[in-house]
Structure formats: structure tokens, C-alpha cells
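Lecture notes, unit on protein representations.

Consider one protein chain, 195 amino acids long.
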Amino acid sequence: MRARSSPARSAVIDPSVGWFADPALRLRADAITADLASRIEGRLVATGVQAFLTNTGGATEATEVDRAEFANRTEAHLCISLQVDCSDNADAGGVSTYFYGSEAHGVVSSVGERFAGLVQREIVARTALGDLRSHAKTWDMLRRTRMPAVRIDAGYLTNPHDAALLADPSFRDHQQDAKTGVLRLSELRAAVRHA
């Protein structure tokens, strides 16, 4: 991971893999998050945003702290971390977003919270993934970055519905406009400017 100085608008994309007991599921999760990161990178670059990837797929030994330090070195304006999830309960499914915040300490990243809400709204409006809402967490990737950071858990590989959607490349490339969810480029630019 090598950081470069950032242009006027930039974002870090962090395809990561959480804990998976099953090595085959871990490999699928890695492939899906790497593919999603590549697609997001392409869309950001098309809008004039410089994108920095923490990794491009394949098993990485970089910790969350390492990846947060990389993000900080880029001096990017936003950080988007991507994961897919697993559960012992096959009924667990849906998409959730996370931003930095601690109820116990009364702190929250207000820009991160707004951005997480925007991302959550858009994914739910444009896909068939269930809405697990946005939540404040103190995870290292959210806490240690100097820019607003959002983590997207884009479904559960242990849920048959989510797994079927995530396995479909056309679903991962989904760009459907939805009446209830309209991501405006001006909103994304405003979030980057105010970060």
C-alpha cells in the first residue's frame, strides 16, 4: 500500500474481509468485495473523484489499523470500507452501514453519519437487500481515519437470498434509478467538500 497526495476530491475504498470460519466463504467474500470496490472506483473516477484502494483483492495481512493509516496517508476526503457478512443463522440478511460514534462517550462523526444514511438509503432503494439501517461503531477503520469513514456490510453470504444476489455480477453492477432513492452527484460532492 503506497499513498499519494490527493487531488481536490478523493476517496479511499477499502475492500476487506471479516472473520469467516469457512475458507471457501472467505474466498468468495474477498472476490465479491474486490469486485464491488473496483466498480465503485470506476464510478468515482468517472465523476472526477480520485480513488485509492487499500488492496485489490487476494488475501491480505493488513490489519484495520494498517488500512486506516494508509487512508490517512492519502489525505482523502472520504473512506468507504466494504465487507460481506456471515452468520450461524441463515435467516440473517440485509445491508447495513456504519459510521464512527460512541453513545457511551457522546461523540459521533456527523458527516460520517449523514454519508452512511445516504449510502444506506440508496442501496436499499435500488436493490432487493433488506434494510438493517445505519449504526454508530468505534471500529478501528471508523475511529482511526482522519476523514469521515463509512463501512458497508453488503449482505450475508450465509443467507440464500443475499448470497444469490451477491453472486450475480449484474447485481453488483446495479445502477437502477429508484423513485425513493436518488443519489445526486451534488450530494456526493457536498459530502466530499465538507469532509
